[in-house]
Each structure stands twice: as structure tokens, then as C-alpha cells.
Amino acid sequence: MILYAKGGIYIEFYSYQQPIFPLEIFYAKIPNHNPQKIYLQNQLNNIKTGLRGELNVQRYLEEFQFPADSVIIHNFHSMIHSKWHIQIDYLLISRKGILLIEVKNIAGHIEFQSKPRQIVRTLDNGTVQAMDCPFTQLERNVMGLKQLNLNIPNLSTQTLVVWANRSSRLSINEIPKPHTLIMMKSISLYLTSYFKGPNTLTSNEVSHLKTALLEKTIKQRKTPFCQQYQVNKLDIRKGLYCSLCHNQLKKHIRSWVCPECKVDASEQLSANILSLFDIFDSELKVEVIHEHIPELSVKQIRSILKKLGMRNRGTGRGRIYFRED
């Protein structure tokens, strides 16, 4: 949780954004001939583009002077049931109710179509791509929230799409009600209008909502990458890789360096070890880590795991390390 003050009022800000470096290292470890390499590259680009937009929006949110009893959850995840999972970029809880914020950071000429509902992007080079409609995404998330049994009668739930890419050219005839779409720089103006008028919740109800939603928020630990992206574990390349440029790290006397971007070696060693828990399994033995990073000794790996605060159980060669969510 982060507390930041504006005008003497402290706002609670919770972020459940997962680090991107495990996916970067996974991408680096996949051989170029693997058929999933290009698909994963596209996934990485989309994730990084979306995250840049969300972080830009966050800077505008931090500028705004929210009223007391306001809580923001970034990257809210919740499992409605075993087959239905929702994700919301920003969830604002206040005495006005709940505001769902969907952030889009898509460049090009964007045309909103209603039948069927979708957006169509055209790049300057003529490439055309159809994408999911953000208003449909919001409606699905509102339906999901209603299934969470928050026990607040007449809870007001409003929706907002924030377009974070300044270079986009939007073509839209009509925004489906009751949604709102704004450009990123209009966030303060929108929130000023949003908070006008009477409140609908008490401070106690806001506190109840915050507690209930945080309890239902899951710190998302996905299916192991090999399984999720259908990559054979035997195809994963061994060694230490840079999470920034995807080149293999090289030993230089007593330290490790990236020949391309000269990243901090100690940080990259930890990143490589941690990524294996996302790539293969959430529980690993030191011997398995050593098999995939043979450049490091078992003693070095144990030392890094200890510094990372990784939990473990068992003794000797049977000791298993795991991440506690």
C-alpha cells in the first residue's frame, strides 16, 4: 500500500501490478526457431504498451486532490468463479461509490464500430487490426463486480475509458451509455465533476467496500509460462539472460555483465532465478535451478534465494523453495 497526501488528505493506493521481467527472461530463453517466439514477442509488446499507459494515467491521478475516504486499487483481479476472471486497470472506491477505469494506450487511427462492437486500428503503413471494444470490457467487469456480493444496497457503479495515447486519432459516432471516454489530460476535470453533488455512501460503507474488494483481489500468479504459452520445457535455453535486451550475460572476472546494455549484474542474477518460478513451477529445488543456470554454483543460488526471502520447506537435497503469495 502507498499513502500519498494532497491538501492534507492521505489517499490509500494499492497496486497489484506483477513484474514484467520474468516474461522478458522467458522470451530470451526461447530459441528463435520456436513457433511461439513471435507470438510471445507480440504479447510482450502489448503488455508493455498497456503498462506505460497505466503508469502515465497514475501520474495524473496522483495530481488530483481526492476527498477523504478515497481508495485506489491498480490492476484489480478477482475470480468470479472457476471459469470467470475479471481484471480492472484502476478501481476507485469513494463515498460516491465505485468507478471502474479502463486505460487504452493504442496508437494509430482508431475507429469505434457498434455492429459488431469492436475497435479497428489503422496504422500509418496501412496495417489494419480489429481489437476488443473497451466498453464491452467494462460492462463485463461491472457484471463481475455485481457477482461478488459486496452487500452495499444501491451501490453506484460508474465506468470510464481513459485514452492514454496522445498520437491516436479517434473516430467515434456515439459513446454507448452510460460510459464515458476522455483523453488522459482531462482526468482532473472529469474527477472534479465526478465528485460534485451528494455522497451515496457513508465512511463505514467505504471502509467495508475497501476491505471486501481487497480480500477478493488476487495477486495474480499465472499458470507456468511453459504451460500457458505451450512451450516444451526441454526447449528452454540454459544460462543467464538480460531482461532488458534479451542477450546472454557474460562473465567478467568476478562479475556478470550484459555486452549490450551493461546492466547491474546482481539484479540480473536474482531476476533470472526468480523467473524460473514463473517459467516452470512455483516450487523448485536448488538442483533444478542449478540445472537451468549452470553458471551459478548451488551455494550461490542458495545465498541469492536467502537474500530474496524465499520460503522453503524440507531439509538437505529435498529442500523445496517457493514463493508465498
TrEMBL record:
Q: Pfam families, from UniProt?
A: NERD
Q: Where is the NERD domain?
A: 49-168
Q: Tell me the InterPro entries matching this sequence.
A: NERD (IPR011528)
Designated name of the protein:
NERD domain-containing protein
| Organism of origin | Chryseomicrobium excrementi
UniProt lineage: Bacteria, Bacillati, Bacillota, Bacilli, Bacillales
